[in-house]
Amino acid sequence: MALEMYLDLFSQPCRSVYIFAKKNNISFDFRKVSLLEGEQYGEEFGKINMIRKAPAIRDGDFCLAESIAIMKYLAEKYQTSDHWYPADLQKRARVNEYLSWQHMGIRMHGSKLFWLRLLIPKIMGVEVPKDKMDGALEDLEGSLKLIEEKFIGDKPFIAGEQISLADLVAIVEIMQPVGSGLDVFEGRLKLSAWRDRVQAEIGKELFDEAHQGILASQEMVKNMDSSKMQVFKPKILRFFL
Amino acid sequence: MPLELYLDLHSQPCRSVFIFAKKTNIPFDFKFVDLATGQQYGEDFGKISVVRKVPVMRDGDFILTESVAILKYMAEKFGTSDSDHWYPADLQKRARVNEYLSWQHAAMRAHGSKVFWFRAIVPIITGSEVPKEKMDSAMEDLTLSLKVFEEKFLDDRPFIIGEKISLADLVAIVEIMQPVGTGLDLFENRPTLGAWRDRVKKELGEALFDKAHKTIMDVDSLPQTFENNGMLEFLKPKIQKMFN
Q1: Which residues of B196-210 are buried (b: 16+ CB within 10 A; e: fewer)?
Q2: I need a labelling partner for B242 at 20 to 30 A (CA). Which of A231, B87, B90, B95 fits?
Q3: Taking the domain B3-84, which CATH number applies?
């Protein structure tokens, strides 16, 4: 039975898992979970992942959530090239360090900006107050600065000479606010140069394919039926508490 | 040269690193970083880590941040076949540990920390209780995380991956203990959680568990420390941000 991957490419962690599997020629059944239509709350998907988030995989009777756990599982099972998750203790620690930091370090801020700029105005029908927007932008700036100075530093990639899971997870998160129309690479030479290297390693075609959806968000959200997205209202209201 | 661990036991991730090193007999130098006095913002600590957070590990000239990375490093470097259960070599068991360690950042840790700040720290800084709406919302989030923990991560197993304790249980317990330190008994009316806590405590050893948690169970002394060290003014903008 084939590996099933439950994905929606609007989601950053779905993109990293998708790119990783494709890049390493791991064959899988792509099972679309349309997040903005609330498919993750359906009965079927609940059997795959009761936390109701994507990505999730089903490998035989083994179900697994969390993109980082998924990629490490795939890397080990399919014996992908060492550089993705190096066996060397210190290099591996550097990858783990980034993968741990990034949850609250960048993922949270990039996601928030995407919601504040695109989804919340659409669903609630109002622009987000300036002080909240400014606060979110400040947080993102701080994260990008730390990524440039500490995690990349003067190395080509986060773990050193070669691309790893850390760079892959980093790039998909950074692309999220880009999808909302915010050019985070402008004025950031080091980040841009790193982005170019990462894109080259992944392959432009695969990178673009994975990011096609998110980069068309502004247009897509404009045309969405906001009445179908009311399920997200409670989540949004909490943002403003 | 032994490991150096830069720690303050007020911090959940410091506790997991401390407990793991002690439990598995990894010799280390305890380097105290006094968070309540803002030592993490000082020049000396800045040379250890620009991120200005704890824990930090120094192994010779290799410096590492992030407790999850540190725990895995220590488990792999100092591990033996007997201690495999902490971070099992088995593919699926290891995946379950990784799954928990990934999920917990934005769930258990985020919500437990927030409730801790709202109950123990914010009132000291602002001079008043956190508005009911915000507190209720934070408690709701924590309650949901605990529900997911009991139903998905524990289910009917003694520990997260099954029969044996792992890094996942260790990281889980220290986070759950944070709001407990403010006097919130999260184990009351949660028999599954309480039974798991008892098992974890037994595996770690009660003396070690209590030693690691002595600081957080004694947070009443924080107000005076903050006042003595100018932390009130320093933390005010940070608190303001939390409410934006």
Answers
A1: bbeebeebbeeeebe
A2: A231
A3: 3.40.30.10
